[in-house]
Design a protein that fits this description.
The structure is a single chain. This protein is an alpha+beta fold. The chain is extended and about 105 Å long. The longest helix has about 30 residues, at about 30-60. A 5-stranded antiparallel beta sheet has the order 3-4-5-6-11. A 4-stranded antiparallel beta sheet has the order 7-8-9-10, with no helix packed on it. A two-stranded antiparallel ribbon has the order 1-2. Among the domains are: about 30-100; about 180-335, Rieske [2Fe-2S] iron-sulphur domain (Rieske Iron-sulfur Protein), CATH 2.102.10.10. The chain contains 8 helices and 13 strands. The protein binds FE2/S2 (inorganic) cluster (FES). FE2/S2 (inorganic) cluster binds near residues 265, 267, 268, 286 and 304. Its main location: membrane. One of its GO terms (molecular function) is oxidoreductase activity, acting on paired donors, with incorporation or reduction of molecular oxygen. Belongs to the Rieske iron-sulfur protein family. It is a multi-pass membrane protein. Keywords: 2Fe-2S, Cell membrane, Disulfide bond, Electron transport, Iron, Iron-sulfur, Membrane, Metal-binding, Oxidoreductase, Respiratory chain, Transmembrane, Transmembrane helix, Transport.
Length: about 350
């Protein structure tokens, strides 16, 4: 230990300026001042201990429903006592370190961090001895079979990955088919054109989601129900027919201004329903992709690359709105196998 660094040899490019002169604190030179500081710090710690005892009394003595200045009296007491105690302990410890603990500057020169040459030679010798004694190099059959077994340890991981969910292959269709009714996704009631006013948007599902069998049990349940609901979710909107500009082949996909689109964003699959009825725009809340529902679900803003898939609509004999087919495009986000699956759909139609 020294007050300043040792003078450096002249070969150093920059001279070490050393440490500034050590300044003694009042507590270092005046014993009565040191004792006063000691009493102050101890006082803080004692008050902190009393506050912690007060915390316990507060817990026992104050009712849950008592208030103080509009706050819960119990919470107020807890906050003041525990917070005050921690504050005093922290201040006391800092004062102790700054005013009473030794503050002599110490210098410890750096040493090379590498092991000595002898240690390194000894370690390499031990490793080589271990390899030779184990026969790892002499018995290639054992060595190679062990390496093979260790490599095979990765195989179970692949199978565990499979548990993350269904593979994305063959996901190109939904349960929608010709004649399936559109139902309100809250009430489960089939929709008629008169149920929608111009400017209105309704969230829907295929009727099969609410169907029951002869014994009154739901036709779909569990994981299958969830998968069907998530893939086939739709939005149904009504606009003035003159505002709609259907592309070629879609002229009869709507009913008197009522159009139906997938509710699943084609970017990464968030459900969409932020509808701006004046502009006919539908905004995805996740990354702000915006689709023009009057213009075939075209993307007009944001990271989505594909228009929102549209479901062709018709009416059944009882006047309920039905699908005229499945979605002609894949719903949801575009996976790498999208192009292949889309080709399959195109070939089918
Ligand atoms: S999921 Fe809709 S914009 Fe990203």
């Amino acid at each position: 230990m020294s007050d300043a660094l040792e003078p450096q040899p002249d070969t150093e490019p920059i001279k070490d300026p050393g440490l500034p002169e050590h300044l003694y604190r009042p507590q270092d030179v005046d014993e009565s001042q040191a004792r006063r500081t000691e009493r102050q710090i101890s006082g803080m710690f004692i008050v902190a201990a009393l506050l912690l005892v007060g915390f316990c009394f507060g817990y026992v003595l104050i009712d849950d429903d008592q208030t103080f200045l509009g706050w819960s009296a119990q919470n107020f007491t807890f906050g003041m006592t525990l917070g005050g105690a921690l504050l005093l302990m922290g201040v006391g410890i800092i004062q102790w370190a700054k005013k009473l603990m030794g503050d002599q500057e110490m210098v410890e020169m750096r040493h090379p961090s590498a092991s000595s040459e002898e240690d390194r030679v000894a370690v390499m010798k031990d490793i080589n001895d271990g390899i030779n004694e184990s026969g790892f190099g002499r018995r290639p059959m054992i060595r190679n079979s062990l390496l093979g077994a260790m490599g095979a340890l990765g195989l179970p991981t692949l199978f565990l990955l499979r548990d993350l969910g269904p593979l994305p292959f063959g996901q190109s269709t939904t349960v929608w088919k010709k004649g399936m009714r559109l139902v309100n996704d809250v009430t489960g009631t089939p929709m008629k054109p008169g149920d929608l006013e111009v400017g209105q948007l309704v969230n829907g599902e295929p009727a099969i989601v609410y169907e029951v069998d002869d014994e009154g049990h739901p036709v779909l349940h569990g994981t299958e129900l969830l998968q069907v609901k998530s893939k086939a979710a739709i939005i149904v909107v009504r606009m003035r027919p003159e505002d709609i500009t259907p592309s070629k082949g879609r002229e009869n996909w709507g009913i008197d201004g009522i159009l139906c689109y997938s509710k699943i964003c084609t970017h990464v699959g968030c459900p969409i329903s932020l509808w701006e009825q004046q502009t006919h725009h539908l905004l995805c809340p996740c990354h702000q992709s915006t689709f023009d529902l009057a213009d075939n679900g075209k993307v007009i803003f944001g990271p989505a690359h594909r228009p929102l898939p549209q479901l062709p609509l018709g009416l059944d004999d009882e006047g309920y709105i039905i699908a005229m087919s499945d979605f002609p495009e894949i719903v949801g986000p575009s996976f790498p196998e999208f192009a292949r699956d889309q080709k399959k759909l195109d070939d089918k139609s």
